[in-house]
Design a protein that fits this description.
Layout lengths: L4 E4 L7 E7 L22 E5 L3 E3 L8 E3 L11 H21 L2 E11 L1 H12 L6 E5 L5 H6 L10 E7 L7 H14 L2 E7 L7 H16 L7
Parallel strand pairs: 2-3, 2-6, 6-7, 7-8, 8-9
Antiparallel strand pairs: 1-3, 4-5
Length: about 220
């Protein structure tokens, strides 16, 4: 597998409900793995790939990683963005073949920049996933406009959480994402919290509950 990754694999033969957790800009494959024991009582398979872009944060510190270059508020560079998406798609193909994944219960979760990746992958191919989670992230309007509205979007489970004090990605961008998702007909749970660019305990509790109630416990029937 070309992308480095960390994994939480439950005991037993599986297959297991699976969460693909995508970190934000400047983090790495270890960033979200610590949450794994909380998901589905530790019985969910959690895979945390590392973004292919590496850069120096400060001398003496491990490099930071990202999925596509930061543009300072400008539009995404389509070529660079598609490179990151292609690397992640290849990782998903390999991961589903290598790990004991329940293909009916694969959830994409992304924090910050990772959420943009999750939006793109899940909305372009909703039949491949059982749910989408975007934490402190945004769905760029240009990206949304480039993704066709599909019949499979209707009722597709999605959770969006955003902090009202987010200093990195303003809450208005989360609210715009909410409207774009509602227009597609997804089964959206949108929640705001008194927090910054982070995951507070109350948000984490809601996330764990949502995963169990909307995705991990129900069976997604094959079409």
């Amino acid at each position: 597998m070309e992308l480095l990754h960390t994994a939480h694999v439950p005991a037993g033969p599986g297959p297991f409900p699976t969460l693909i957790a995508l970190h934000g800009w400047g983090a790495n494959a270890h960033d979200l793995l610590g949450l794994a024991p909380l998901f589905h009582g530790g019985d969910a398979l959690v895979l945390c790939p590392e973004g292919p872009l590496a850069f120096e944060i400060a001398p003496g510190y491990p490099p930071g990683h990202g999925w596509f270059p930061i543009t300072g508020g400008a539009s995404l560079d389509p070529m660079e963005f598609r490179k990151g998406v292609a690397a992640l798609q290849a990782f998903l193909d390999e991961a589903l073949a290598r790990y004991p994944v329940d293909p009916r219960k694969v959830v994409l979760l992304g924090f910050s920049q990772g959420g943009v990746m999750a939006y793109d992958l899940a909305l372009r191919d909703p039949t491949r996933f059982a749910g989408l989670v975007a934490l402190s992230s945004w769905l760029p309007r240009a990206l949304s406009d480039a993704i066709p509205k599909l019949p499979e979007h209707d009722g597709f489970p999605a959770l969006v959480q955003h902090g009202t004090q987010d200093e990195m990605i303003g809450v208005e961008r989360g609210r715009e994402s909410r409207e774009l998702l509602i227009a597609r007909g997804v089964n959206l749970s949108y929640r705001e919290y008194e927090m910054g660019h982070e995951i507070r305990p109350e948000a984490l509790r809601d996330l764990v509950t949502w995963l169990d109630e909307k995705v991990f416990s129900p069976i997604k029937l094959a079409l």
